[in-house]
Amino acid sequence: MAEDEKKELNAADKARLRAGFDLDWRRELRRSVPVKERLKIGRLKMPERPAGERNLDFAEVNLGLAPEAAREEARRCLDCANPLCVTGCPVAIDIPGFVKLVEAGRFAEAARKLKETNSLPAICGRVCPQETQCEEVCAVKKAAGMAVAIGNLERFAADFERSSGAVDIPPVAPPTRKKVAVIGAGPAGLTVAGDLAKLGHDVTVFEALHEAGGVLIYGIPEFRLPKAILKAEIDYLRRLGVAIRTNFVVGLTATIDDLRDQGFEAFFIGSGAGLPGFMKIPGENLVGVLSANEYLTRVNLMRGYDFPVHDTPVPRARTAAVIGGGNVAMDSVRTAKRLGAERAVIVYRRSRAEMPARVEEIHHAEEEGIEFQFLAAPVRCLGDERGRLRAMECLRMELGEPDASGRRRPVPLAGSEYTMEVDLVVCAIGQSPNPLIPQTTPGLKLGKWGNIEVDWATMATSLPGVFAGGDIVRGGATVILAMGDARLAAARIDAYLGR
Question: What span, in angstroms and rounded, lies between the C-alpha atoms of 72 and 102?
Fold first, then answer.
């Protein structure tokens, strides 16, 4: 490259040049469409199935971008000198890099670029809250009001590679013969396993359930994350050399100390937060009151939605009420609607503005006929003479001063009780870590809520060689935050093991 051309490079390109990156095509691409023209391109909406059709089955709602639509959306990216979108991504994807490859029509290369730092791009493209992370700080959003649809493009590139049948397996470092045990095959465990396998370590994932995936397989419905896609991502990890042992409950089948005796030198605990929370109100033991964890596990992991092919008992309701306002609540209430509920209701103690669920999920629920009762909280469940749920008594609320979460605290309104007839109540008010591993691992330091305490700079626990991340550390959080923890932990585990 000539010296005068080098002077025209932005800071990001200079770094890429030092890394041996071929910049010629990228600079030409940037020059081909001026910035002002890029900013005039409107954000393309991803096609989706009509609400009246999709709420009758469990097929995926969003349909993905067509190739030319993906290239057009990618043209909106300015390829910034200081790409804040990368800093907004918990796993530090080279977002401008993969987006420019999409714009150039180099879709397989875009998928490879994604997988440099993200082993689960087809999953993240579907369930990651990009709107509050990478897209929130996108320069195009500041300049034109609507961020580049980074998540939709991530999904497109990953889906293109998978559907092409030519999934690229990157080179793996020479074997180190160092054995690493990963506890839990959820997003954190799968991520740390993939990173460590690429570094040449001998990685085994121990999963308590009969299928790998963690919350991705038992918690997220088929209409948001088809299980065939999850299984394809897990197959990619197996092809990297990751071994996965299912039906293996660490703390019961074997303890961490037992595994250490078997030659494992480092450990990552990514067992999630699978202990459901309840409302602690009278009547919660009635038939017809379930935790979201149990309800979604029956439907998703045990495939109760696919009756009679899979004959899993799942309550079918005329009127279903789901308590909560997060993504789990949205998944539960939309599931109840698809299972035949004539009336599916969200009961949430704050207002719509405070709901933690993704905006897209709330919007889809509204389109599908879900009813929302805001500023309301259950106070008791009522049963019939056989102990079956027949109604739920609620209390109206108003918003007071902000609480520790920063949201305004709901305050009961005296005398505002009302009763609604229901035959299914699903509690989606949060989950906490399962205590089995802490109880069977002496010396493991815990927080007051039962979460494992870590050094956030390294994800190391109080025990030598034992690291942790995801919901077992954070409580209920997002898939991508768990993956960010795992990537940091993988780097530190590699350093801990040495060569």
Answer: 9
Quote the CA–CA distance of 184 and 5 in Å, as a whole number.
50
To 5 degrees, how large is the angle CA 104–CA 109–CA 114? 110
Query: Binning pLDDT at 50, 70 and 90, where does residue 311 land?
Result: confident
Q: Which of 216, 119, 212 is nearest to 158 (CA)?
A: 119
Q: 390 CB contacts (<8 Å, ≥6 apart)? A: 382, 383, 384, 421, 422, 423
Pairing relationship of beta strands 389-402 and 418-421 according to DSSP bridges: antiparallel
Reduced to 3 states, what is the DSSP secondary structure of residue 16?
helix
- Give the domains, in start order, of the chain with CATH numbers: 3-45+60-164 (1.10.1060.10), 179-274+433-497 (3.50.50.60), 277-430 (3.50.50.60)
| pLDDT score, position 286 | 97
Encode pLDDT of 349-374 as tens digits.
999 999 999 999 999 999 999 999 99
Q: How is residue 411 written in tokens?
A: 């305050």
Burial (CB count <10 Å: 0-12, 13-18, 19+), residue 275: middle
323 phi/psi in degrees, rounded to 5? -95, 120
Residue whose token pair is 């419905």:
221
DSSP-assigned letters across all residues of 251-303: TTTB-HHHHHHTT--EEEE-----EE-----TTTTSBTEEEHHHHHHHHTTS-
Of all residues in the chain, what percent carry a pLDDT higher than 70? 95
Could you write out the DSSP letters of every residue in 97-125? HHHHHHHTT-HHHHHHHHHTT-S-HHHHH
Plot region of 273 (φ>0 → left; ψ -120 to 50 → alpha; else → beta): beta
Q: DSSP letters of 21-50?
A: ---HHHHHHHHHS-HHHHHHSPPPPPPB--
Quote the pTM value. Answer: 0.90
Rounded CA gap, 117 and 123, in Å? 14
Distance CA 248, CA 322 (A): 32
Measure the CA–CA gap between 363 and 243, rounded to whole angstroms: 39
Q: Can you say whether residue 64 is alpha, beta or left, with left for phi > 0 and alpha for psi between -120 and 50 degrees?
A: left
* pLDDT above 60 (res 212): yes
